[in-house]
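Sequence design from tokenized structure. All designs in this work follow the same two-part layout: the structure record, then the generated sequence. An example of the structure record is given first.
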């Protein structure tokens, strides 16, 4: 194992060993073909059934099947009563939709730095950001580990804020025994192919609050008050979008949901094996699962401990070198997000709609112009951004613990032979 594959050695994992996600079997074929032959290819019976089954899965009263997790997040913003010029606190490190969903309704994102250990928003830094215009917190359950919802709920209650749960990566995760989807006032899920529950594309809005459900429903379908399954008057009563999912996609989602228990068990078993293999590898910081949390291991994200490997140069140089060495060994690691959100042009330019809106919107009452997106204000998020790499597929079905073992062996091989990497010498 001494010679690294990147330098001509034999890879630990041969090409084709790791199987693709998601597994497609006779259940998927049967349900999708039945939907295809059923003649209802827009919002149809499988959409309704998927909503009911997913609501039961999370334990919610209401669920709305959408065409993406981004749409579901926008619906959460609207359901929370957020409007022009309002402010919403959100993590500084996530997918762009966690914050652009705020812009979609002419409101203003206010970023908070992250906690390095969990990669989630630092709850201790939230209260300092609250202004009279703050209306909600979007808590992103990043990579399948929930935020500290005990602390978040205390803050939300104290300041009368809505608590929106971005669980686009959180399927099946729990906080002190409570399912994702039940931790906030409303929640958004994504069913993109990368997610632990896949329908190709798609998403779901969930809540227990009937008023929030009705507000989200109106945005979801052209601003109308009746769904496509009801008698519609085709009258737009408010500003609305076309966020509905379709029957074929829903059928695939239903088929995959029927296997979710087995998938989740596989994730837990494989993650336990990999975590045990990575424990003690000098220079690698593996993801954690704090007491009381149940991780879904959507993205098994590692960071490089620069001090431990003796690297004093730019962190991304060392991270990239180690990541490429792992890739050569057959481990499909990659950088999930290269930019912290405050460093993205859409926020730094402060001109989402032209004319400086929403920051200069008169309804912002001058508070929007005080919001500054200085990347230097988010040092922990930047440190994470520069030191991380992650992986999704190796821990998922149909891959078993033997794959996790091989991935662990590849990590050990690379970290044992960092001196072979020319970038680090």
């Amino acid at each position: 194992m001494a010679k690294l594959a990147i330098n001509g050695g034999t890879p630990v994992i041969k090409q084709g060993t790791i199987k693709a996600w998601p597994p497609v079997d006779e259940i998927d074929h049967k349900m999708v073909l039945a939907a295809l032959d059923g003649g209802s290819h827009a919002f149809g019976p499988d959409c309704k059934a998927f909503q009911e089954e997913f609501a039961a899965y999370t334990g919610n009263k209401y669920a709305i099947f959408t065409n993406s997790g981004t749409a579901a997040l926008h619906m959460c913003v609207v359901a929370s009563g957020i409007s022009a010029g309002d402010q919403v606190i959100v993590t500084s490190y996530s997918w762009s939709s966690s914050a652009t969903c705020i812009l979609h309704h002419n409101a203003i994102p206010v970023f908070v730095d992250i906690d390095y250990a969990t990669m989630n928003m630092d709850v201790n830094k939230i209260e300092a950001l609250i202004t009279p215009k703050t209306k909600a917190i979007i808590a992103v359950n990043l990579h399948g580990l929930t935020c500290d919802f005990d602390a978040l709920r205390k803050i939300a209650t104290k300041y009368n804020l809505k608590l929106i749960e971005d669980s686009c990566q959180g399927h099946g995760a729990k906080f002190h025994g409570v399912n994702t989807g039940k931790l906030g006032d409303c929640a958004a899920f994504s069913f993109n192919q990368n997610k632990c529950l896949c329908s190709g594309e798609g998403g779901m809005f969930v809540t227990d609050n009937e008023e929030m459900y009705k507000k989200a429903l109106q945005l979801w379908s052209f601003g109308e008050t009746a769904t496509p399954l009801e008698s519609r008057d085709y009258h737009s009563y408010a500003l609305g979008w076309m966020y509905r999912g379709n029957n074929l996609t829903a059928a695939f989602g239903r088929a995959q949901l029927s296997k979710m228990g087995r998938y989740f068990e596989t994730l837990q078993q494989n993650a336990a094996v990999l975590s045990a293999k990575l424990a003690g590898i000098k220079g690698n910081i593996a993801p954690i699962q704090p007491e009381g949390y149940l991780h879904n291991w959507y993205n098994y994200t590692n960071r490089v401990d620069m001090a431990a490997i003796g690297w004093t140069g730019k962190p991304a140089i060392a991270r990239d070198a180690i990541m490429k060495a792992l890739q050569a060994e057959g481990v499909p690691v990659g950088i999930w997000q290269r930019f912290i959100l405050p460093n993205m042009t859409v926020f730094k330019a402060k001109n989402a709609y032209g004319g400086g809106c929403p920051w200069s919107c008169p309804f912002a009452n001058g508070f929007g112009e005080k919001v500054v997106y200085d990347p230097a204000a988010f040092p922990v998020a930047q440190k994470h951004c520069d030191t991380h790499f992650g992986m999704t597929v190796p821990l998922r079905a149909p891959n078993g613990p033997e794959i996790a073992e091989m991935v662990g062996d590849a990590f050990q091989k690379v970290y044992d032979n960092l001196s072979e990497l020319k970038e680090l010498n």
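The mean pLDDT is 96. We note this feature because it recurs in several other targets discussed in the main text.
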